[in-house]
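Problem: given the chain below (268 residues), write out its structure.
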Amino acid sequence: MAQRNGYPSDVTDEEWVFVAPYLALVREEAPQRQHSLRSVFNAVRYLVKTGCGWRYLPHDLPPWPAVYQQWARWRDNRCFEHLLADLRELARVLAGREAEPTAVILDSRTVQSTPESGARAGYDGAKRRKGSKVHVAVDTLGHLLAAVVTPANEPDRGQVAALCARVQQVTGQQVQVAYVDQGYTGEAAEYAAAVHAIDLQVIAKPEGQTGFVLLPRRWVVERSFGWAARFRRLARDYERLALTMQQFHFLAFVGLLLAKGVFQPTSP
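Solution.
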């Protein structure tokens, strides 16, 4: 059998040493395991990066049913959320920050629906697009902390409570302030954040300014959306389940931090 050349999305040896413990839901030699976890992980990364369908995975990767079944286990156990949380802490410490943030930025992006996701899609009148909204919270370095997927017609302010609850859960109640745009104005959104001990601060455009404006603090989350857009599976909502779309975002940000090598020990 010819040796497999691999793909740019394949995990490196160093990355796999760090990642493997988070993904080993059963022992490596378990009798029901027919394919190595590393090859399955490579297949999922390939799918998210290239945007191909499950049935179109290359034949030098494990069969798509095996890959999907293992992905579903990882998804339902939120393995990539746990992995990203530790990678994010490492990245922050290496950047000279505290391990957990005290400030976050909230925002959403509307993703065009497809026939697979159309049953749960909504119409975003502002973007004039039918699809899903991915509501996120990122720290001031742009690292993902929380994500909620809703129909696109759901208002941003309606997800403040869910995002703030998750943010405080993953940071150990460390977040004190959340920066948002004018889509989050109103007493209801402010109260939803205050319930979780977070001060919601609206960063508004300068008076009289129209079109795109690079706003203080707020530009960080726009950059994060730009990072996510490089993963073609996230360019549109191809998923029947909102949970799959959500967890693919965590997997994408895991890949971004792995590529930075934040998990590698530094020389003394």
